[in-house]
Amino acid sequence: KESLFGEIKYDLGILFLGANDNAIGNQHVPLPEFTKNLGDIIDSMKKDLGCERMLVLGCPPFVKAKFDNRTNEAHAKYAAAAGEAAAATGSLFINLHEAMTTQLGDKWEESVQEDGLHLSQTGNRIVAELITALIEKELPELAVENVPFQFPLWSDMPPYVEE
Prior knowledge:
Elements: E1 2-3, E2 6-7, E3 13-16, H1 31-48, E4 54-58, H2 72-88, E5 92-95, H3 96-104, H4 121-138
Parallel strand pairs: 3-4, 4-5
Antiparallel strand pairs: 1-2
Helix pairs in contact: 1-2
């Protein structure tokens, strides 16, 4: 795509899913429709945005006591369906629900803020570590140490001289 900086090429698109689709009520999207829609979104990002590769992040767990319109069991099913859609489109996938409950065990609630849904500092750190590890393993050419800077470092810039 064209921008101020010329042609933009997306080496990796990341699709981070939330939890609203599996909520009971007006936000609910049935699981088969969710899976199909997700595949369509991934295909669109590849085609319309030019993302060469995609990474899908399945929704993380949430604190059930804070919500009466969703369950972690349904949440886990939607996260798994996201993995199926990712596989069907040749995309990479991280199941955050599974990863956070596995890594943190009984303390998985530390991965979310007091609202019980949005990621805490711990949750965001885990997401960053999982993405970094996946890139280093599956897409080493996109690892931080292998990606050139787009702009010069500040230390390489000539000093500012007030005129």
